[in-house]
Amino acid sequence: MGTKRDFEWVYTDEPHATRRDVTSFWQLFLMAYCFGGVLNKSLLTAVHEIIHNHAFGPSRPMATKVLAVVITLPTGLPIFGSFKKYHLLHHRYQGDDILDTDIPSYLEIKFFSTP
Q1: Is residue 35 part of a domain?
Q2: Which domain holds residue 44?
Q3: Cα 25 to Cα 33: distance, rounded to the nearest angstrom
Q4: The whole model's pTM is what?
Q5: Has residue 4 been placed in a domain?
Q6: How many domains does the chain fold into?
Q7: Vertex 89, ends 84 and 92: CA angle to 5°?
Q8: Alpha-carbon span 115 to 109, nearest angstrom
Q9: Banded model confidence at residue 54, pLDDT cuts 50, 70, 90
Q10: Distance separating alpha carbons of residues 103 and 72, to the nearest angstrom
Q11: Could you please report the per-residue DSSP string of 3-28?
């Protein structure tokens, strides 16, 4: 540990505490929500393109998987594997009311519909 002489002592307010009083919580929240939403959507759009092999092509599947995992890390959700499975099934059976994974089931329709 150092002594008091090892530090530079100033007698002004701590800058973070001063800025905290000036910044509105709702301004900060709205800015973070909008900025974070744009970044999150951009990352998920990138994952969609990676699933279609647009990053490295079909000849480098391991590089594709690694990139997809790295890109989804900031979202906090490891969605690559499950999204790839269901999204490719959606493309294979697109428009089929039974096999298309993007068409809602009867239970989903009833649960999410308003009277």
Answers
A1: yes
A2: 13-112
A3: 12
A4: 0.67
A5: no
A6: 1
A7: 125
A8: 11
A9: very high
A10: 25
A11: -GGGS----SPPHHHHHHHHS-HHHH
